[in-house]
Amino acid sequence: xxxxxxxxxxxxxxxxxxxxxxxxxxxxxxxxxxxxxxxxxxxxxxxxxxxxxxxxxxxxxxxxxxxxxxxxxxxxxxxxxxxxxxxxxxxxxxxxxxxxxxxxxxxxxxxxxxxxxxxxxxxxxx
Length: 126
Description:
Elements: H1 6-20, E1 43-44, E2 51-58, E3 65-70, E4 85-92, E5 99-108, E6 119-124
Antiparallel strand pairs: 1-2, 2-5, 3-6, 4-5
């Protein structure tokens, strides 16, 4: 081997020796995430004329799922196609701002407004 290649070979040896010695620790740990909700939920308005409102909702809950179950007959709404009632969106303030407002109606299977009865309305946000 020529003498001028000796420093280059030695440099490669030292450079690669650090890579060969790299190792992961044998310790196992736990990742812990702690946090809280920064946004408050929606404000709900009273049910009047078979309609209710959700106001000042943050845009992060825009894809809210709404379920409704009759308290008088809780088994009537087991599957969506046989549900005694469903919720229909009537108006939406749009998605141009940080908060939005929506108004919903409670309808029966035939699409008519329900004006009497006892129902539990559940909002599920992502």
